[in-house]
């Protein structure tokens, strides 16, 4: 891999730069630190950093140039020349700058700060990357498939030979139905668990129960998916769906919803626990002082006070449910369907993103590109929920600070 | 208006409401109250004074079993209300607290409307049969809390929007609304400015006609202004207990004298 | 204040009890409601913990058998006329005999074994006997012969994998009844298997191959292992550690110590907390579009998986790192600044070392999260069927590979139910790794946690 080799060469140049910069500083100062503005290692580090960073910037730039212009630089000649050239130039310039008064420490620190800023901007770049990676393909998709049919179509039947119906509504319905069931499980259980932990449990019960519940949050979703597939699905099918005549599919909205609900319990409970604990004790005292029982205090004073925060927590849980993939891939099924029967297999936005983008994909056909439109829809929905939830939670925290 | 009981109570003034005998309070291993005896009279303002950490607030919170909400807290000895041991196993602290209301250091209105703040207690105790009853209780309580005139036009506004002094009077009114027999006040003016303090003190003096009031205070002037009886606590002991003017003019115990003259505190 | 002395007391509706010792009906009702409410809370916690237990029991029950495997122990005569037709023991010539050549030898040996035991099983054909041995056996025998050409012509004892259905029979997954309707196994074979087991030719022992062997095709679940998946996961974790930790720490240092409070910083902060909540599958789309379609990195490669997981883990690491940096008391910074250190020196010499345990704990937890992530890896082609081990890093990072959670998904999509056992077994491996990582994090926290 020439990239790795180039980076190793850059490291070598940087090491050489450090040694030479340091030595030059020593020479011109007669090895007396006090006549130098900056300590010797800073001079060395300055050369090293300058050379290395210039090289890396050039490496990245040439990569981008290649990507944008499509120049076939098969032997990486342009990349190598650009990278090493930039590194050598920076090396030469910075080494030449070393004088007694040269503020190497300040310059080095500026360079380091630059690196830190670059690291911080990775987060921004990621978001931009997410948006860009989906926007272009989505536009491509809408050029081939009418936007209205996608957003409001009630049929989802992709065909290999083309001429597919790619209406999103059945997928959205499946997503919302599964999420709804998951929240119906997770919100009451999580909320009651949080109330018990925050208001009733002694330190010992709390010390045991809270970590145990949080283990549920640390379990990878693929584990829940497998649990849905081989345990919950068959049980629901054999003991509920078939006796009641509601269907005979192990994969169902109910299967995925129940399991996802379990996954979300710790999510709701630990967020709500924090939020309930943030309600000032004085408010509880006021209520106890009047002669209210604990449950009356919780229901009529603590919960109303904590309501905004809890709503925020539920919104975050909802966003997580909507974006969850593995549980629905393994538990909900693959049939796009608009139905009310929770024991029927349905499918979700995330399931279809996976199925349209795995296996043989042709990035010119709408059947593949639709995944990007689904992805951006999912992104926008979850982003909206997250922003709203974080805003509410932040406002709530400020209220009691 | 069912004011029979009030009239009745007016007759037997200065009966003993609370009686504590050999009361000890422990927080885990530490002993916060070291065996005190005290009698608190009806229709009297009793002030608990003493330096910080002397146990006066702890003892106050024993009187309506607010200490029950702290896990490590343990009370021994006997405290009776109208001759009944309040730490008896048969006693439900919830029922006790309906009789012995409490007002706290910092005003702590619930995040509800002014009306709902007052109506909360009567509702949970089932004191009102109809909406009109409830309206009546709310108005009476707010009047007794000396805040009716200020809030009567905005009963639906949140209680948290009031000023500090108003909030504290709202909390007093809230405590009154459950028709208690005793009102416990834990430094009710420490978070208030002088004007609000004066208003609350005036209110406490008026409350004396109907209730037994026990007030913990840091301010000796306040104790002198509002109370008829004063108890001086020091390091978990009840050092001296007697009529307020005697405590302040002629203390028997040297520690009381030192505190009153500002040498310990 | 004038109206405060209104003479009437508030109405008391319910008759107040004269004694504290008697509970009013209302109090009884309220206490009952209180008990109920408390029970709901306890019940909720119970349901949560019960779910955890059921989940673990289900996975353990289904997956533990994967660590045991049924083997057939038998003698095989390495027939020179088949294996080395030229008779010169030249490795190149021997290698020309493909596994097709070895299969009849194994099948013949198996037939002999069963027939010699006597006790004819009615309806048991030679073909059925041959099918009782895993199709993987031929490859195993060939590798052995290629490694030991001198032994051609001798008779050696071998331990071959039994067919998945035979294995399932001894694990209770396959029964006589199910065999009747199963086209892949017959009751006669099961009877023969029982006889073999009685004679000591069928044994069950620890299945090391499950941890080391690569994946196997649909017809031979008994041979499928996690070797490639474990290597792939380890490679991805290396990439995540090498990228996410330094970038995350650098970003946190900037945001916590240097960033001016302005709208740009605000945007970065909001952005990070949102990224932490973006569905993982969206990161998969990002990886597919940017790293594979745009940068033309190879599909199924640990480097791409590692990059995607790095981007996913960054917010977690940044959030926990910032918390640890924040917990270093300002007095220490003041002290360093006071002796004339620059801000940069203060941060790197004092704040960062003190925050290190917390940062590492957060990084391990982020890594554990990344290890279990599946959805984004599906989109960058890691579901592919990979039988070759990736090479050593760094080149190996670009070889096709798979990952533990993806292997689980992969196995759930196979038709043979024996793969479900494998999938659950793989989950156990995954969970053990996660527990270990979290233990390290807990120990780090316990050992180095400082209270200021």
From TrEMBL, chain A:
<dbReference type="GO" id="GO:0005315">
    <property type="term" value="F:phosphate transmembrane transporter activity"/>
</dbReference>
<keyword id="KW-0813">Transport</keyword>
<feature type="transmembrane region" description="Helical">
    <location>
        <begin position="6"/>
        <end position="21"/>
    </location>
</feature>
<feature type="transmembrane region" description="Helical">
    <location>
        <begin position="301"/>
        <end position="322"/>
    </location>
</feature>
<dbReference type="InterPro" id="IPR022182">
    <property type="entry name" value="PstC_N"/>
</dbReference>
<keyword id="KW-0812">Transmembrane</keyword>
<keyword id="KW-0997">Cell inner membrane</keyword>
<protein>
    <recommendedName>
        <fullName>Phosphate transport system permease protein</fullName>
    </recommendedName>
</protein>
<feature type="transmembrane region" description="Helical">
    <location>
        <begin position="42"/>
        <end position="65"/>
    </location>
</feature>
<feature type="transmembrane region" description="Helical">
    <location>
        <begin position="115"/>
        <end position="136"/>
    </location>
</feature>
<dbReference type="InterPro" id="IPR000515">
    <property type="entry name" value="MetI-like"/>
</dbReference>
<dbReference type="Pfam" id="PF00528">
    <property type="entry name" value="BPD_transp_1"/>
</dbReference>
<dbReference type="Pfam" id="PF12501">
    <property type="entry name" value="DUF3708"/>
</dbReference>
<feature type="transmembrane region" description="Helical">
    <location>
        <begin position="77"/>
        <end position="95"/>
    </location>
</feature>
<feature type="transmembrane region" description="Helical">
    <location>
        <begin position="176"/>
        <end position="200"/>
    </location>
</feature>
Automatic annotation (TrEMBL), chain B:
<dbReference type="GO" id="GO:0005524">
    <property type="term" value="F:ATP binding"/>
</dbReference>
<dbReference type="InterPro" id="IPR027417">
    <property type="entry name" value="P-loop_NTPase"/>
</dbReference>
<keyword id="KW-0067">ATP-binding</keyword>
<protein>
    <submittedName>
        <fullName>Phosphate ABC transporter ATP-binding protein</fullName>
    </submittedName>
</protein>
<dbReference type="InterPro" id="IPR017871">
    <property type="entry name" value="ABC_transporter-like_CS"/>
</dbReference>
<keyword id="KW-0547">Nucleotide-binding</keyword>
<dbReference type="InterPro" id="IPR003439">
    <property type="entry name" value="ABC_transporter-like_ATP-bd"/>
</dbReference>
<keyword id="KW-0813">Transport</keyword>
<feature type="domain" description="ABC transporter">
    <location>
        <begin position="18"/>
        <end position="260"/>
    </location>
</feature>
<keyword id="KW-0592">Phosphate transport</keyword>
<dbReference type="GO" id="GO:0005315">
    <property type="term" value="F:phosphate transmembrane transporter activity"/>
</dbReference>
<dbReference type="GO" id="GO:0016887">
    <property type="term" value="F:ATP hydrolysis activity"/>
</dbReference>
<dbReference type="GO" id="GO:0035435">
    <property type="term" value="P:phosphate ion transmembrane transport"/>
</dbReference>
<dbReference type="InterPro" id="IPR005670">
    <property type="entry name" value="PstB-like"/>
</dbReference>
<dbReference type="InterPro" id="IPR003593">
    <property type="entry name" value="AAA+_ATPase"/>
</dbReference>
Automatic annotation (TrEMBL), chain C:
<feature type="transmembrane region" description="Helical">
    <location>
        <begin position="275"/>
        <end position="295"/>
    </location>
</feature>
<feature type="transmembrane region" description="Helical">
    <location>
        <begin position="423"/>
        <end position="444"/>
    </location>
</feature>
<keyword id="KW-1133">Transmembrane helix</keyword>
<protein>
    <recommendedName>
        <fullName>Phosphate transport system permease protein PstA</fullName>
    </recommendedName>
</protein>
<dbReference type="Pfam" id="PF00528">
    <property type="entry name" value="BPD_transp_1"/>
</dbReference>
<comment type="similarity">
    <text>Belongs to the binding-protein-dependent transport system permease family. CysTW subfamily.</text>
</comment>
<feature type="transmembrane region" description="Helical">
    <location>
        <begin position="301"/>
        <end position="319"/>
    </location>
</feature>
<dbReference type="GO" id="GO:0005886">
    <property type="term" value="C:plasma membrane"/>
</dbReference>
<feature type="transmembrane region" description="Helical">
    <location>
        <begin position="351"/>
        <end position="372"/>
    </location>
</feature>
<keyword id="KW-0472">Membrane</keyword>
<dbReference type="InterPro" id="IPR005672">
    <property type="entry name" value="Phosphate_PstA"/>
</dbReference>
<dbReference type="GO" id="GO:0005315">
    <property type="term" value="F:phosphate transmembrane transporter activity"/>
</dbReference>
<keyword id="KW-0813">Transport</keyword>
<feature type="domain" description="ABC transmembrane type-1">
    <location>
        <begin position="230"/>
        <end position="441"/>
    </location>
</feature>
<keyword id="KW-1003">Cell membrane</keyword>
